[in-house]
Amino acid sequence: MTKLISGAAVALATLANGGSEYVLNTMPDGGYVRSGLSLEKAQDILDFTKEAMSKAIEPDQLAKSVTLSTGATAYDLRAPSLLFNPVITPIRNTLKRTKRPNPGDAAHWKTITGLTNSPNFSAFVPEGRRAASITYTMANASQGYATMGTEDDLTDEAKLAAEGFEDEEALVQMRSLYKLMEIEEVSLLLANASLSLGTPTAPTLSASGSGATLPGAPTTYSVIVVALTPLGLLHSSLANGVATSVSVASNDGNGNFTINCGSSNKSSAATQAVTLGQGLYATTPWVNGAAGYAWFVGTAGNETLQAITTCNVVGFTAPLAGGRQAATAITGDCSSESKGYDGLLTHAFKNSSVSYIKTLATGTAGVGTQLTPVGNGEVAEIRDMLRTMWDTWRVGVTKIYVSAQELTSLTKLVLTAGNAPLLRVNTDTTAGEPAPVKVTAGSVVGWYFNPYTADGGRFIPIVIHPNMPKGMIFGYAEVLPATYMSNECPSVTELLVRQDYYVEKWPRTSRRQFYGTYCQTAPAVYAPFCLGVIQNIAPTT
């Protein structure tokens, strides 16, 4: 029986066959054969389609229809991408960046820190006589330039796929610059190129008390201590261990290089017998340049990392944690890194004869020494720093940098009923208005008044710094007072620049483009007597 071919079937076959009702293919014998979609098959397709569309969808077939779960929806992507990476750089932001005309490999300068007369505070002379010559206290100083940089890369596919979304080529360079600024801030405050921590003294141990749950008692415990620089404290943790050095996989293909992370060599082991219920306590002499201490505890030869403290004292009363870094991982002094430069704290530590350094006393029974409230809203240690810097050098601190821990401690010490009233509520209703019934909680100490200045006193902002070590307060006189006449010092600290931020677009060796953001700088601390550090501070409870 001949199938009736509709005009729609002819149109479908013609469309499928590229404009003809059928396709002629040449055979090897020279003949022809039809191929493609025949008119009969085209009519069958139309018949099947009509039959399917004429039937109602059964309830059990509804799940097979198009829904949100099938993904047949638009993709609403907000552009550009969101960068949630805080870049807090208060010291970098305030330092003057000065490019030397002929920088060489290091910056050099001379300082005059004293003019002495004979006698120093009297200049009277007899009739017709002459005074003695002034004597000078002079010093040579220098700071080598250091290069720091970050790199990022972008594949061709990533660059092209981002078109219409964001300029990824520009953004990888911008993000690299932000990261370099963040690292530069850390370095300006904490970097250490020249001050070695060496090997700490073996801890002094004791056992006392009752109720402790140290396992295996009676047992003889062995304790080893490692000192940490401010940068080493930042790098180290109980989970990841003490950071000694890290091997950096350079993008230049010339092998890895090593960066020291800020830890000293390990001390000799000290041992202490502990009986049931006693706690184990350890102290070590403070190491100049240290900001923290890592304590390795266990039986002799099996000491593992059990605590990292910002005071030179620690106590253990609970079972020791397992799976921690072994003391055998510490094999040498990695406290300084000669590829870098000295930050502000390191300048204070290594110039301790002129800078102000106050180390609080070693605590007892595992508890460090807290700051001391005076009773009139002052803190004794900060008051003493301000007065000493005035008495010795006639300078005044302009910024006090603290961690969140010390800001909390200062607030507890100052804003107490014994030092200052917490709330001031107006109860005078004579004006016809009711007294307020709402007050604001969360008061914080934001300023400290320094009475020891030549102009009658100044308010010093207390600045929380994201990289300031816990247990430490940094007082910084950013400028010399006007009484330092003809000092030729633009600022106390100046960031000398051999080459400021620049981008290297490296030659391509693959379908991936590398970008490097670098700078070459040297922080020159002209007046280290303008730096003050209070350290070994236990948090106020």
Textual characterization of the structure:
It is built from nine helices and 24 strands. With 541 residues, it is an alpha+beta fold. The protein has helices at residues 7-16, 39-54, 90-94, 156-161, 168-190, 230-235, 344-350, 380-393, 404-414, and strands at residues 23-26, 32-35, 96-99, 106-116, 135-144, 146-155, 204-208, 219-228, 245-249, 256-260, 263-266, 270-274, 279-283, 292-298, 304-309, 313-316, 356-359, 399-402, 447-450, 458-464, 472-476, 493-505, 512-525, 531-535. The protein starts with 6 loop residues before the first helix and ends in a 6-residue tail after the last strand.
Mean pLDDT: 87
Oligomeric form of this entry?
single chain
End-to-end Cα distance, whole Å, is 102 Å
Q: What fraction strand?
A: 25-35%
Low-confidence stretches: 23-27
Q: What can be said about the biggest beta sheet?
A: 6 strands, mixed
Question: Structural class of the helix and strand makeup?
Answer: alpha+beta
Q: What is the global morphology?
A: extended
Strand line-up across the major sheet: 17-24-21-18-20-19
